[in-house]
Amino acid sequence: MATVLGINGVFHDSAAALVVDGEIVAAAEEERFNRRKHGKVPVPFSTWELPELSARWCLEEAGIAAADLDAIAYSYDPALAQAPGPDLTVDEWEGLRTLYAQRSPLFLRTVFPDVDTERFRFVAHHVAHAASAYLAAPFPSSAVMTLDGRGERSSFLAGHVVDGELEVLADNRLPNSLGLLYEELTAHLGYRRSSDEYKVMALASYGQPRHLERFRQLVRTDGRGSFVTEAVDWHELAPAGRGDGTLDPAHADLASSVQVRLQEVLVELARWLHERTGERVLTMAGGVALNCVANTHVFEHGPFDDVWVQPAAGDAGTALGAALKVAHDLGDRVQPLRTAALGRRWDDDELRRRLETAKVPYEEPADVAEAVAEVLADDGVVAWFQGRSEFGPRALGKRSLLAHPGRAENLERLNDVKGREQFRPVAPMVLLERAKDVFEGGPVPSPFMLFTHRVRNGWAERIPAVVHVDGTARIQTVDSTDDPLMHRCLSAFERRTGLPIVVNTSLNTAGRPMVDDPRDALECFGSAPIDVLAIGPFLVRRGALFARP
């Protein structure tokens, strides 16, 4: 029986997670506390921040003192890293990054002075990614695949897991990296690498893969569970972008070409892995596994019956994976992840006090779910702040902006509310029992919004706000057992409109982390054209807020 704190503080998305006796108790990104998205400020190595605030909160949430920790698991092993050299094209900070990781036990003593550094355990980056998938998934055995930009010397791991024991079957050494390829594309188009790749994924749907044959030459699998990514002259293919949200056809075609080749390579790797393992389930993590279009391609065209992706599949999730791996190694029977709602929460009394302290007029309806459904049916935009916040980059009905899916103009409206590019889609949240009536092609249930689904005939014109340009939607299914409040809201909305769906996008504005605590919610509500804030059992109406004397 062990208490393990997991830490990610190497590349970006600094985070902490706590596992107690094999149970996931808490997990949160540091950005939710310090309000720096992805931990980034304009200093190149500022991303190397220990998740001091989120780690403290994890312990407080569990009522555990730092001295009671059996282990602290860090999701990077400096012994496996390699400094830059003539045969390894990595950024100039790699040597400093490794030194930082080596000294992280000493840095952590400034946060938790009572923790003996002997309790500190390094976990290889891709092993932490893999463990965040195979140990969190509800399967006793699986194939596992992790892909990202880089971790120590590698960019990829493929393996076979039985009863929590990982056999690594293949890895891929830098500079070959699908994640870095996508990062380079993102930077060439003028967006922030290791941050805005999801924008490029959305942009790809507007283009044609005109450069696909070129990328088939540049990115090749070898039939042995590995791949090669050759250097790309991006300027030869398309001019550099400004990252200003302009929908340039040349940029869309380039994004489409890389996206399609990524999907093909993932299927080729999955087929090789299936031949080696014979497993029916593939579990996935790593930043590339946040590419929901590619995940769906693997699900539909790959050899596995099921594909399970961990909701915080990016680097934040390695904090969870490191903690789960060390807990397993210490003899605990790790319990599967039951929900992504692992972050902070406030009870009703605390929320009431916050509203009264802020002198914000509020209502307390008999049922906030019914009241919100009424607002949505009348085409209002609702900020939804309920329960524990989500772990990972997707809003999953805890910190969400909600709207009517039947109004096509609500896509532009929400992108204006958030201050982001108009080519960006918003997502549908759908009752689990109705999902297959409306969508096809991806896995159902799909509770973590990590796959796309095709919209069935006859439905696209009924829910135009959530249908992407390619006829797909990135759905989240809502189960009455897992989230009874949101399920009631969706059911109430369906009774009023005939639609078992609402628009769901993250509760934040461009460049800001997702709202996490009540103050964040009030700031966002006060600064953006949102009609109603549903915070716990209370409603704050915009008209009432700005009608005060």
Q: Quick gist of this model?
A:
This protein has 549 residues and is α/β, with parallel strands linked by helices.
List keywords for this structure.
549 residues, alpha/beta, Nucleotidyltransferase, domain 5, DHBP synthase, 7-stranded mixed β-sheet, 5-stranded mixed β-sheet
- What do we call the CATH topology of the largest domain? DHBP synthase
Name of the CATH class of the largest domain: Alpha Beta
Give Rg in angstroms.
Answer: 23 Å
For this structure, the quaternary state is single chain
Distance between the termini: 58 Å
Which structural class is indicated by helix and strand composition?
alpha/beta
What can be said about the biggest beta sheet? 7 strands, mixed
User: How many helical stretches?
Assistant: 18
Number of strands: 22
Report the sheet-strand fraction. Answer: 15-25%
- Overall geometry comes to globular
Describe this structure in words.
With 549 residues, the protein is α/β, with parallel strands linked by helices. The protein folds into three domains: 3-127 and 317-329, ATPase, nucleotide binding domain (Nucleotidyltransferase, domain 5, 2-Layer Sandwich), CATH 3.30.420.40; 138-309, ATPase, nucleotide binding domain (Nucleotidyltransferase, domain 5), CATH 3.30.420.40; 348-545, DHBP synthase (Alpha-Beta Complex). It has 18 helices and 22 strands. It has helices at residues 31-34, 52-62, 94-109, 125-134, 178-188, 197-204, 212-218, 234-237, 249-277, 292-301, 317-329, 348-357, 368-377, 409-418, 435-438, 484-497, 518-527, 542-545; strands at 3-8, 15-20, 23-29, 71-74, 120-122, 141-151, 154-162, 165-173, 219-221, 227-229, 281-285, 306-309, 382-385, 399-403, 427-431, 439-440, 453-455, 472-473, 476-478, 501-506, 532-535, 538-541. The chain has a seven-stranded mixed beta sheet, sandwiched between helices. The protein has a five-stranded mixed beta sheet with strand order 3-2-1-4-5, with helices on both faces. Helix 5 packs antiparallel against helix 9, helix 9 packs across helix 10 (292-301) and helix 13 (368-377) packs parallel to helix 16. The N and C termini lie far apart (58 Å). Residues 41-46 and 86-90 have low confidence and may be disordered.
